[in-house]
Structures are given as structure tokens and as C-alpha cells.
Design brief:
By secondary structure, this protein is an alpha/beta fold. The protein is about 40% helix and about 15% strand.
Length: about 130
């Protein structure tokens, strides 16, 4: 069984730091939330680079650092092109896309959101 913890607070928080430093199981992995890293630290690469050998999933959403908004990609100021360059030398198995950002009102908005995010991901992953 693999257990993946998510960076839900500042990268230097005592809880995450304790878990990552004291549980050495090869089954303990990380779900790296790009939006959380951007919001809490404004440095997506620092935590990612320090723990990239344990990161197996990413949670992709955008924000502008004014809140932990789970916005659609491109609706914030995270530099996803730069982030995906970081991931090229990692062992990420899955990128999890935020499919129901806050404020999603109806089916047409949802369809437009998915199309927009898929197109952006195609560009980022080139």
C-alpha cells in the first residue's frame, strides 16, 4: 500500500517536517499540491526539489497568492511552464486536475473549464 501525504500548509511546518523526516517507509509518498506550494511559500520549486524522489502525484490548480483558490489553470499566476520543466526528472505517476473549482456554476462552464485546462496541459507538457 502507498500512502501519499499532501503539502497542505507551509513546507516548513512541524507536522509535515516530522512525518517526512521520521517515517522512512518506501510506501510513504507525497501528493504535491502546486497551488498550496504557491500560496503558502511563493516558491513552488523549493519543496518540490527537496522531495521530488517521493512525489508521485501532483494536484494542479491555480491561484494568485491572495487566497488558496482552487482556480482553473491560467486563472492565477503560477508559472506552470516552469513547474513542468521541474517535473521532467521526477517519478510523478499522475497529475490530478482540479475539476470543480470554486464558483463553478453550470455544465457549460464545466465543459469550457475542462477544455481550457486540457489545452493548457498539452502546452505545458510539450
Amino acid at each position: 500500500m502507498t500512502l501519499a501525504i499532501e503539502n497542505v500548509e507551509k513546507a516548513g511546518s512541524p507536522h509535515i517536517k516530522y512525518v517526512l523526516e521520521n517515517i522512512k517507509s518506501p510506501n510513504l509518498k507525497i501528493l504535491f499540491d502546486v497551488g498550496h506550494a504557491h500560496y503558502f511559500t511563493n516558491d513552488v520549486s523549493e519543496f518540490f526539489n527537496r522531495h521530488k524522489d517521493r512525489i508521485v502525484y501532483t494536484h494542479l490548480h491555480d491561484n494568485d497568492r491572495s487566497s488558496d483558490a482552487h482556480n482553473s489553470l491560467g486563472n492565477g499566476n503560477i508559472d506552470y511552464k516552469r513547474f513542468f520543466k521541474l517535473t521532467k526528472s521526477s517519478s510523478i505517476e499522475y497529475h490530478i486536475l482540479e475539476v470543480n473549482p470554486r464558483g463553478m456554476g453550470d455544465v457549460e462552464k464545466f465543459r469550457a473549464h475542462v477544455r481550457n485546462n486540457v489545452e493548457l496541459l498539452k502546452e505545458y507538457l510539450k
